[in-house]
Amino acid sequence: MKFITFMTSNRGRMMRIVAGLVLMIVGLFVIKDTAGTILAAAALVPIAGGVFDFCLAGLVLGYPLKGAEARRQIAKSAARA
Predict the structure, then answer these.
(1) How confident is the prediction along the chain (81 residues), in pLDDT tens digits per residue?
(2) Contact by Cβ (8 Å): 64, 73
């Protein structure tokens, strides 16, 4: 739960954007070729997740895809405990 709490927070969103940008730069300027292009394209997923507030890791772990809904669910769980 702490992981998803972090990933849906503003810091987690910023981290996903930065990590995506780093992956994109590595793919385009370090690896190059087809593998680099694929890595750069895959980097769009964490960038979009941070910008549009969705978390695929949360979805895999049983939380809603949208960050706001996941934060609400986490807050409800914390209130019950």
Answers:
(1) 899 999 999 999 999 999 999 999 999 999 989 999 999 999 999 999 999 999 999 999 999 999 999 999 999 988 886
(2) yes
